Amino acid sequence: MAKIKICGVTRLADFRLAQRCGADFIGFVFAPGSPRRIDPETARRIAAAAPHRSRRVGVFVNEGPRLVREIYRHAGLDLVQLHGEEDPAYCRALGLPYWKAFAAADGAFLGMLRRYDCRTILLDGGDGAGRGGTGRTFDWSFAALAMKTGRRVVVAGGVAADNVAGLLRLGPYAVDVCSSLERRPGVKSPQKVARFFRALREGDFPRGGVK
Known about the structure:
alpha/beta, TIM Barrel, eight-stranded parallel β-barrel
């Protein structure tokens, strides 16, 4: 089955809940202006207070590389997710493991992703202004096309308990779920998280995805 990333975590209780449910990745959003933004010190304390069973992902939008590196070290991150217009030169110079995010409103991103040397890309339904977390899906046929390039594809944008079955049958590397699990931005609902993971357990999905 695809790996699961729970994003937009701002509280220790939600971090522990995500780990108990089996999340492979947990995302901290450091982008200014995001309703799910967390400061680096709080992220560090949350990560340090829980076992390191899940990989910790820092989400950044057009941030200076020096600050990204500082937060990566301070918060004890495992990788960064670049969700802005970061170009290939920026990504190479950053010197950190990264996922590059692309808005998949149309197929234009397919030509762009070939310029990046990352093994994993993330496709989101955001329109560029929302930067993800909008709960908006996109045409998942674009994800299937991206998989044909040999990249590991993470699908985000409107992923929820009632549609994850259809998505996982495409065989993405991972799914990224955020707003559908919330009571309000940055605060997860235990009931919604439980429902989502119950949908995963009850589904009959192919064991795809690259380790």
